[in-house]
Specification:
110 residues; two-stranded antiparallel sheet; mainly alpha; single chain
């Protein structure tokens, strides 16, 4: 179990962040009634970018609550968004961990 250091746990809570992102995505998919798998055809109902940067910001809000680091800058999100959820997680997880570690060490302003 992670030990707390002030408002931070001693290690990046990867499983908590991963679970929070999974729950966020399930809720997003239900709200938007997205098809479970892209069909390969790009049109209004099947966009090229499944998760645009505005939508990804909503995921950051969820993660802010899990990490307890205050505001996470939108610049952490890949410009233009992500083709799918797995791409988003693969891009965000190392960036979130690095941001968390910097915040924990006091190298990033609140």
């Amino acid at each position: 179990m992670n030990q707390t250091m002030g408002s931070f746990v001693s290690v990046f809570p990867q499983s908590d962040v991963d679970s929070a992102l999974d729950e966020w995505w399930e809720a997003e998919a239900e709200d938007a009634e997205l098809p479970p798998e892209p069909t390969g055809t790009v049109d209004v109902m099947n966009p090229l970018m499944e998760i645009d940067s505005h939508r990804a910001v909503r995921a950051l809000i969820t993660i802010e609550e899990v990490l307890n680091v205050g505001h996470i800058p939108e610049s952490i999100i890949q410009p233009g968004g992500y083709a799918d959820f797995e791409e988003m997680k693969a891009d965000l997880m190392p960036k979130l961990e690095a941001y968390y570690d910097k915040k924990k060490k006091g190298k990033v302003n609140a």
